Amino acid sequence: AKGLTGNVFPLVSGSRSSKTFKPKKNIPEGSHQYELLKHAEATLGSGNLRQAVMLPEGEDLNEWIAVNTVDFFNQINMLYGTITEFCTEASCPVMSAGPRYEYHWADGTNIKKPIKCSAPKYIDYLMTWVQDQLDDETLFPSKIGVPFPKNFMSVAKTILKRLFRVYAHIYHQHFDSVMRLQEEAHLNTSFKHFIFFVQEFNLIDRRELAPLQELIEKLGSKDR
């Protein structure tokens, strides 16, 4: 397997199997990035999210951001995978995060002019686009000593900005389904981790976070 690509695993949420939305990205075992991921998981277990997102001593910032970006892609993938049946052309004809925010898709290469499309279509474009970036060894090198490109930080920022939109859509349009599936604790923990991470390294512009500003403030105030 090249890069950070992995196999497709059936995802099990509780006892209920949920279909995988996109293939899970695997960080190769035994690699330094795998060790970093394990470190991240261990510090998350401590319950102190602010501390868990900090750059571990002596580590490379690009590598830390790369490992966490892959992890957030997998988390969002899994969360969205549990509600795909409720996010349809009919239920979500536009990609929105509440009545005030609507997103149009463009990737700058295949689709240069932003197009209006349904949420499932938009999220499919978005996740496929992210996956292509994560698979690109020149952008996300998985081998030790292979340098990150000069534009890595701006690539990572764009990926995270777009992944945020999936959280925003789930919260605004599908939270009732999330609650019915008893996934809200999982969603909230994942989102809180994501927000603390992007805040720690200033990766998403405040304006982009506006659709979930109240929730972000609430999560921050309950901070431990």
From TrEMBL:
Binding of Zn(2+), residues: C87, C92, H169, H174
Gene3D superfamilies cross-referenced by the UniProt entry: MOB kinase activator
SUPFAM superfamilies assigned: Mob1/phocein
InterPro entries: MOB_kinase_act_fam, MOB_kinase_act_sf
MF annotations from Gene Ontology: kinase activity
Pfam families tied to this protein: Mob1_phocein
Keywords from the named record: Kinase, Metal-binding, Transferase, Zinc
Superkingdom as given in the UniProt entry: Eukaryota
Identification of the protein by name: MOB1A kinase
Species of provenance: Cepphus grylle (Black guillemot)
Gene: Mob1a
